[in-house]
Specification:
The structure is a single chain. By secondary structure, this protein is of the alpha/beta class. It is built from 11 helices and 11 strands. The strands form 3 sheets. Strands 7, 8, 9, 10 and 11 form a 5-stranded mixed β-sheet that branches. Strand 3, helix 2 and strand 4 form a beta-alpha-beta unit. The protein starts with a helix and ends in a 5-residue tail after the last helix. The N terminus is likely disordered.
Amino acid sequence: MRAAVKHLAAAALLACGLAGALSVAAQSVQITDARGAQVQSAKPPQRIVSLLPSLTESLCALGGCERLVGVDRYSNWPAHVKTVPVVGGGLDPNIEAIVALKPDLVLVSMASRAIARMEALGLKVVALEPRTHEEARTVMQKIGQLLALPPTQGADHVWARIEADLNKAAANVPEAMRGQRVYFEVSRGPYAAGEKSFIGQTLTRLHLRNVVDARQGPFPRLNPEYVVKLDPDILMAGERAWKTGVPEYPGWAQMRAVKQGAICAFTPEQSDILVRPGPRMAEGAQIIAQCLQRLAARQGKSP
């Protein structure tokens, strides 16, 4: 009898030990970032610095905004982000300021020149940079894993809403605008959104044809004369790129789209939404759909 009691007690202790170990394991997080680097943490990060607006927005969409202790100068959504200390640019941040914030995780883009130095100083760094819809979803999933969120409550839930809203935006594109050949300028250069970029994929979802094909990469820099030869039906860009509301490149004033006023010139606020591959991509699609509706009405084409 006494031996049986001892056996039961030992079993109980073992069970408690296993339960404790499982509890600790459940709290630990591990992901592989875009570099292929494995990043591990004993528990979900509570103090996060984000150095890329799209990563900041994805983190906040997953409920992690309150964990932000520092952001890059371009992160400006949602409103809470504007109350968080700014630590310079995403490519060349103020590393001393970041170290002073004592973060347990730093989110950066693949292009950041500060990754090696931050890691040398003992900071835990995750490099992520979505360029397609698929990569944007993967980034959501990885950030959700870092926050220890079940997918159905985190990334999968957010992505389902994005997909539903993208479909709604596509349905709002006038029939007369479908199949139009579009050039989308991301920034001065001109740098364009290629067919396989997340912007290019959004244009395809909206029943539009991108004049910059996949072979030229996601965001190629083009010769302005090349765009003239492409002669798109519609030009799209931010007001910051075209200060006068009309493209300021040689020969562009003679393009059919310019002569016909088939231009979507987005405000700075709209441009921020459009060029960030994150939770507001469907909102960006709706902005484009609204411009197409205005163009169709101006041209006297039925919706």
